[in-house]
Structures are given as structure tokens and as C-alpha cells.
Design goal:
The protein is α/β, with parallel strands linked by helices. About 35% of the residues lie in helices and about 20% in strands. The strands form two sheets. A nine-stranded mixed sheet has the order 9-8-10-11-7-12-13-14-15, sandwiched between helices. Strands 3-2-1-6-5-4 form a six-stranded antiparallel sheet. A hairpin with a 5-residue loop joins strand 13 and strand 14. The longest helix has 17 residues.
Length: about 425
């Protein structure tokens, strides 16, 4: 209710559910707008809704403020499609919207997750919003297909789960992305990384070291990958592969973007990340950027890193550098029954630098560790820690120095202190 007052100048809390039938008004408004024209402007549509509300004798007992709130709500529901969530979608400070059934709506704002005072009147209204979102991106959600993952036109990532498998009601999660991408200077200003570490990572990415970013959910992996990609020389050809397109790499003209495709209602047409990685090898890439690896595609990604595509980048979910390496081993094993020593050798030879991000208790996102990865020749992956984070000292450089310096020499940067 406070958000409605703040964003739209009307207070939804002044209206009780007994004063009007919101579902009937929405249906009436939809029929009215469909009868008039599909090319109505927003102002014309709002004017028609206002006239409809004012002409309704059943609403004559409402005050002016109440009528204004009803008009706004009906307009958002039938014109914008997000219903009561629209003020959250419009708020640039809200990073994520989490709907756990019709009564519980949470948001992440300024690094903290809080419960809002917004709710849907009925479960059917929430389901209607979910279906509308799915249909807008040519997806389908129903009891036979109860899960949908999609990307909206503005780049926001959406996940929805139908109520037949979500016990507390339909679930909707919207992860929004800023209109303006972050830069490394922004990361330094926010305290995510130090200037010294940023300078070193910029050199490593520019000179073609394969980097892998690990971290937990909402630790900023995708954002940081996007920032690191800004250090890639603009003349290089990039192939970007993602499950749902989120990266905004715009400094290179020679770029190919590919996105995975889910199967249709008949179970046909699925295109997985592993297939996209394999086909990217035939597209003359200088670098391959994989948004996030979650399964069998790890084998194809590591093979790509080991076949001359220096400077490739990717991300994955992990609790630490060592934990991420163990996860990569497990995912590799799910794709091929190779000896574990051979898998570890492939991983250690493919990935040069591992960067681990974390989200602290206060919501701050930090680079917690930067480590060089190398094989020891005995089937064990070794790590050479270059930067480490502590609560007292922040992100500080260790006494270790980069072991593998061949790529620095090729670029004439062998004298840089890394």
C-alpha cells in the first residue's frame, strides 16, 4: 500500500475487498478496450476505464481517492499485465521480486530482502499474471507444464511454478536488471573489488587467461562476468552462450549471441547449452563466453578452453574455489565416464583463474578470493591464491605470484607484477 502511494499518489489500503468486485471490473475493462481498438494509446485506455468506473452505479459510494485507486489498479491489470506488482517492476531500486502465493510478496531492495504489504485478491489473479508473462514470450504454463523459465523484453529473468506443485500457491520470481550496466569503476566504488585486484584481472582477461567466476545465488556472478568481458579487446570475435540471455556486452561489434531453447509442449525442439558450445567451435571464435554451467555442458566448455580459445569466461554456483572445482568434477562425470585423474587434468589445464564472489550478511557483494588453477602432474588440481578476503582487512593480495606467465609474455606484459 505504501508503494502504491509513493509511486502513483493513490493508496490501495483505503479500499476493502467488500467495496467492489475487482475481477468483474477487470473483465469488463478488457471487453471494453477490445471493443474499441487494439491501437489505443495508454492515455486513451485510461480515459475509457475512468468513464467506465464513473458510470458504474455500484461504485457510486466510493470516495474520489478510492475511485482513483480503482482506476489505476484496473489500468495496470489490463494494460500493463503485472497487476499489483507493477509498482515493484517500475521501481529501479528493486532488484528481485518474489511472489510466494497470492498473499506473500517479497522484494530485494538495497541489498536486503523484505516483505511488502502488496497481495493479490485471489490465486486466479496471480495465475493470470503468470500466464500473461509466459504467453508474452511464447511459453506455456499449466498443470501439464507447471514450470516456466523465460526472459522478458527488458532482460529481466522470470521463473514461475504452477500451484499444482507449489504447495503454498503459484510462485513467481522476477530478477530485474539495471538499464545501465555496471563498470569496473562501479565495482570499485561499491567496494566489491579493490583497485589493485581490478587492475590485475583486467590484464589477465585482456591477455587471454581463461577465467571462471564462482559464487552462491545472487552473489553477482553474471554482473561481474559482464564487467570482466569489458576488458576483452574490441577487435576479437566473441561467441556468447546463455541459458537465458542476460549479458550486455556491447563494446565488440564482432559478436554472436546464442540462447538455449526449451522443448515445446510436445517435448520437441530443445536446444541445450552443450549443443550451442559445440557448434560455437565451428564459428571461428576468438573467445567463448558461457553464461553459467550447471551440468553436462561443463565437458564441452572445458574442451573449448583446451582447444585454443584462450580468454574464455564462464560462471557456476559454488561455495568456494575448492567447492566449485569439486562441482565441476561432478558435472564432468555426469557427461563422461573418464578417470577422475583425467578429468582433473582437463579442468586444471582449461581454467587458469578462478574468481569467487560472495554476498555478506549485510547484502554487500564482494570478491572473496582470486586463485590461479594448475595441475601438479599427479591427478590433483592445485590452487595458487593471489587475493583473499577477510572481515578485518578486506580483499588483500597474498605473497604468491602468478606461476603461468606464458600468455603475459605473448602480449608483452611479462614485466607486470602479478
Amino acid at each position: 500500500a505504501k508503494l502504491w502511494k509513493q509511486c502513483y499518489g493513490v493508496d490501495m489500503a483505503i479500499i476493502s475487498n467488500e467495496k467492489y468486485d475487482i475481477r468483474a471490473l477487470k473483465e469488463k475493462a478488457r471487453r471494453l478496450l477490445n471493443m474499441e481498438s487494439d491501437t489505443l494509446s495508454d492515455d486513451e485506455a485510461r480515459s475509457l476505464i475512468e468513464d467506465m468506473i464513473l458510470d458504474d452505479e455500484a461504485l457510486s459510494h466510493l470516495t474520489f481517492d478510492e475511485l482513483s485507486a480503482v482506476v489505476r489498479r484496473i489500468f495496470l491489470a489490463v494494460r500493463c499485465g503485472m497487476d499489483v506488482l507493477q509498482p515493484l517492476v517500475d521501481d529501479p531500486k528493486v532488484n528481485e521480486i518474489m511472489v510466494n502465493g497470492k498473499d506473500d510478496v517479497f522484494i530485494e531492495k538495497d541489498g536486503s530482502v523484505v516483505k511488502t504489504d502488496i497481495s493479490f485478491d485471489t490465486t486466479e489473479e496471480l495465475e493470470e499474471v503468470i500466464r500473461r508473462i509466459a504467453s508474452s514470450v511464447n511459453r506455456e504454463i499449466n498443470e501439464l507444464n507447471p514450470i516456466v523459465d523465460a526472459r522478458l523484453a527488458d532482460g529481466s529473468r522470470v521463473n514461475a511454478v504452477y500451484r499444482n506443485i507449489a504447495l503454498n500457491g503459484p510462485t513467481l520470481t522476477i530478477r530485474k536488471f539495471a538499464e545501465k550496466g555496471f563498470s569496473m569503476d562501479d565495482m570499485i566504488r561499491l567496494g566489491t573489488i579493490t583497485q589493485e585486484c581490478a587492475d590485475i584481472l583486467e590484464v589477465l582477461v585482456r591477455d587471454g587467461y581463461n577465467c571462471f567466476i564462482s559464487g552462491g545465488t545472487s552473489s553477482g556472478k553474471t554482473t561481474f562476468l559482464n564487467v570482466l568481458a569489458g576488458s576483452i579487446p574490441p577487435e576479437e570475435r566473441l561467441i556468447v552462450i546463455e541459458d537465458s540471455a542476460e549479458l550486455r556486452i556491447d563494446h565488440s561489434e564482432n559478436i554472436v549471441r546464442m540462447e538455449c531453447r526449451n522443448a515445446n509442449a510436445a517435448g520437441k525442439g530443445e536446444i541445450g547449452m552443450d549443443a550451442l558450445i559445440r557448434t560455437s567451435l565451428r564459428m571461428r571464435p576468438d573467445r567463448i563466453i558461457v553464461g553459467e554451467v550447471r551440468g553436462r555442458e561443463v565437458m564441452d566448455m572445458i574442451n573449448a578452453m583446451n582447444t585454443g580459445h584462450s580468454g574464455s569466461l564462464s560462471t557456476g554456483h559454488g561455495n568456494s574455489v575448492e567447492g566449485m572445482l569439486r562441482r565441476l568434477e561432478s558435472m564432468f562425470l555426469s557427461a563422461a565416464e573418464f578417470p577422475i585423474e583425467a578429468i582433473r587434468a582437463q579442468i586444471a589445464e582449461g581454467i587458469d583463474i578462478m574468481i569467487h564472489l560472495g554476498r555478506l550478511a549485510g547484502g554487500e557483494r564482494k570478491v572473496l578470493e582470486v586463485a590461479e588453477i594448475y595441475p601438479d602432474g599427479l591427478g590433483v588440481i592445485r590452487t595458487n591464491k593471489l587475493f583473499s578476503y577477510s572481515a578485518s582487512g578486506g580483499l588483500t593480495r597474498t605473497e604468491n605470484r602468478l606461476r603461468s606467465r606464458e600468455k603475459l609474455k605473448l602480449r608483452g606484459d611479462e614485466d607486470i607484477d602479478i
